[in-house]
Design goal:
Structural class: mainly alpha
Number of strands: 2
Radius of gyration: 38 Å
Shape: elongated
Length: 184
C-alpha cells in the first residue's frame, strides 16, 4: 500500500498542509473571567466649597453679631435700666466692655466660619456638626455669667445676650455653609 498513514515523513503528516491547522502550534494564554476580580465601589464625588462666598458671609455674620451685641447692650441699659457692661454713669453704650463684647462677637463669628470651612472639607454632615459645636459653645458661654457673683439682673442679662449672639452666629454661618457647598 502506497497511501495511508506513515507516508511522507512519519505519523500525522497527512494534516500539515490543512489551512485550519496552521495556527495550532501556538499556545493559548489563559485569560481568567473578569467576574472574579474584586470590584471597587464607585467613589462619590467630593463636594467643593465656594470659599469666597463662605467667607463673605462669615464677614457679614461678624458684623451682624457685633451689632447684635451693641443693640442688646443698648436695650438693656436704656430700656431696662440695668447696669450691664459698665456702671450706670457710663451712658447708654456702657464702657469699654461693650466694645470688647462687640469685638468678641465678631471674632466668634469668624471662628465659626473657619470651623465651617474645615468641616465642609472634611466631614460627611458638616452643618450638623457645626450646629452642635456652636450650640454647645453658646450654652457654655451663656452659663458662665450665671455662675459668677454680682446682681442677678446683670448675670441673667449677660446670659441672654450671649445666647442671642450665639444663636445668630449659629444660624447665619450654618446657612452660609450650606449655600457655599457645591457638588462636583
Amino acid at each position: 500500500m502506497s497511501s495511508g498513514y506513515g507516508q511522507g515523513g512519519g505519523y500525522g503528516s497527512w494534516d500539515r498542509d490543512e489551512p485550519t491547522r496552521q495556527f495550532a502550534e501556538e499556545p493559548v494564554a489563559y485569560d481568567p473571567p473578569r467576574q472574579y476580580e474584586r470590584e471597587r465601589p464607585p467613589v462619590a464625588p467630593r463636594p467643593t466649597v465656594d470659599a469666597a462666598r463662605l467667607w463673605a458671609a462669615g464677614i457679614a455674620t461678624a458684623i451682624v453679631a457685633a451689632l447684635v451685641a451693641m443693640v442688646g447692650t443698648l436695650l438693656v441699659r436704656a430700656v431696662l435700666r440695668i447696669a450691664f457692661n459698665g456702671p450706670a454713669e457710663s451712658g447708654v453704650l456702657g464702657d469699654s466692655r461693650t466694645v470688647l463684647l462687640c469685638v468678641l462677637a465678631a471674632v466668634g463669628a469668624l471662628a465659626a466660619t473657619g470651623l465651617a470651612h474645615l468641616l465642609l472639607l472634611s466631614t460627611p454632615r458638616p452643618m450638623t456638626y457645626l450646629s452642635w459645636i456652636v450650640g454647645l459653645v453658646t450654652v457654655v458661654v451663656a452659663l458662665v455669667p450665671l455662675l459668677g457673683s454680682g446682681p442677678i439682673a446683670e448675670r441673667v442679662t449677660s446670659a441672654v445676650i450671649y445666647l442671642v449672639i450665639g444663636l445668630v452666629i449659629s444660624s447665619l454661618v450654618a446657612g452660609a455653609g450650606a449655600s457655599a457647598r457645591r457638588p462636583r
